[in-house]
Task: inverse folding
């Protein structure tokens, strides 16, 4: 559950209390995305997301560049999602606005899929995306994720659809 080594131009490391200002900065640079739901880019939202991740057995990573600057966050439940031992779930993948569209999200996703497959024996990765986020829907489709099931209204008023990718390396 420690650091995922970087072979690329980024590294992943679970966030600590010292990283909270940087996490908040990523949230502030993602307000366009947060506005699609109900969350504001506030310290309370960050705390809530970290608490939810810990409760669900998640790993909340910072995505860092070579200079150690946080460019995004990734929250992953590595195993046991939906009661399935070998199913992982991506709770959140959020690249700060200035760094999007350069392939970072795709590289991070490819990297974490390998890690989940090898270190957690995951054989499928699931994710949920809001139906009012067509750019993200395109992104996930291009990374090989298929829609499963019908869109569902969530308690927070957003509508999401479940995505799934079988891991087979
Ligand atoms: C979706 C996201 C993680 C993709 O990461 P990324 O590093 O921008 O993605 P890549 O550069 O690897 O791929 C680019 C593709 O991502 C998608 N994308 C989604 N939002 C985007 C944005 N604001 N800017 C650029 N591309 C975006 C597009 O489909 C784009 O491909 P296209 O424009 O050529 O069709 C990232 O854009 C992001 O964090 N968006 C806001 C948060 C979000 O929507 N997260 C997913 C919710 S489940």
Result:
């Amino acid at each position: 559950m420690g650091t995922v080594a970087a072979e690329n131009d980024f590294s992943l490391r679970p966030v600590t209390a010292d990283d909270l200002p940087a996490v908040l900065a990523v949230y502030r640079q993602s307000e366009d995305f947060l506005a699609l739901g109900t969350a504001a880019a506030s310290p309370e939202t960050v705390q809530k997301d970290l608490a939810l991740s810990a409760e669900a057995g998640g790993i909340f990573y910072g995505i860092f560049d070579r200079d150690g600057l946080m460019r995004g966050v990734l929250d992953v439940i590595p195993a046991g999602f939906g009661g399935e031992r070998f199913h992982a779930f991506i709770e959140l993948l959020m690249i700060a606005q200035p760094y999007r569209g350069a392939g970072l999200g795709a590289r991070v996703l490819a990297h974490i899929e390998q890690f989940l497959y090898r270190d957690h024996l995951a054989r499928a990765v699931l994710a949920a995306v809001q139906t009012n986020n067509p750019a993200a829907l395109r992104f996930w489709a291009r990374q090989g994720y298929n829609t499963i099931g019908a869109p569902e209204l969530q308690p927070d008023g957003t509508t999401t659809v479940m995505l799934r990718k079988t891991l087979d390396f």
In short: The CA atoms of residues 129 and 139 lie 11 Å apart. The longest helix spans residues 104-120. The longest strand covers residues 87-95. The chain has a mean pLDDT of 95.
